[in-house]
């Protein structure tokens, strides 16, 4: 596969937070550390064109989010709780402020204000089967070109990772799948 990284492409790092990385967290991905090695290599490749997002629990509890937090009481904490901090390795990954949203998907005005409405995004992060998937599909639907960096994403389980990548792989040419090595070695 030939991968091209245009000078105006963006690397989006979805939710590299303690809640998804700390082994004691109920939402920790067992693949987070492995994926983060690749995220770091990609961030070096993209330089100033890196965006980091955070999921924050500020959604209205009178909606279905109330039941969600009832099902996951460990996560029902204020947005400034340590669980929602970036992992130390992600601090400074981007010179831009984090894009903080109370939704799984990060394709929203806060992101498009930075990238523009139809960018080429290289998407990484956690969890492949939740926040990555919920970002990638609406971005492609809105006209963005999206490359999911398969080995720089961390799923909740190996099976869920494979399923999410399979689903996202069903949407070419808007969505493509590539590895870190393919992107780091790509021409600009």
UniProtKB/TrEMBL annotation:
Residues 10-169 form the Isochorismatase-like domain. InterPro entries: Isochorismatase-like_dom, Isochorismatase-like_hydrls, Isochorismatase-like_sf. Keywords: Hydrolase. GO terms for molecular function: hydrolase activity. The keyword Transit peptide does not apply. This is Cysteine hydrolase. It comes from Microbacterium mitrae.
């Amino acid at each position: 596969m030939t991968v091209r990284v245009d000078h105006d492409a963006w690397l989006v790092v979805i939710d590299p937070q303690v809640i998804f990385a700390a082994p004691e967290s109920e939402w920790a991905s067992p693949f987070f550390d492995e994926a983060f090695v690749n995220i770091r290599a990609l961030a070096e490749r993209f330089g100033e064109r890196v965006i980091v997002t955070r999921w924050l629990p500020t959604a209205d509890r009178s909606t279905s989010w109330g039941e969600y937090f009832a099902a996951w009481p460990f996560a029902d904490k204020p947005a400034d709780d340590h669980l929602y901090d970036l992992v130390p390795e992600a601090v400074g990954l981007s010179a831009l402020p984090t894009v903080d949203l109370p939704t799984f998907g990060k394709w929203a005005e806060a992101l498009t204000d930075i990238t523009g409405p139809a960018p080429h995004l290289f998407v990484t992060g956690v969890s492949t089967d939740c926040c990555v998937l919920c970002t990638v599909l609406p971005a492609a639907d809105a006209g963005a070109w999206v490359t999911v960096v398969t080995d720089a994403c961390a799923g909740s389980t190996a099976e869920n990772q494979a399923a999410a990548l399979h689903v996202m792989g069903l949407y070419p040419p808007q969505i493509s799948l590539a590895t870190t090595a393919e992107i780091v070695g790509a021409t600009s």
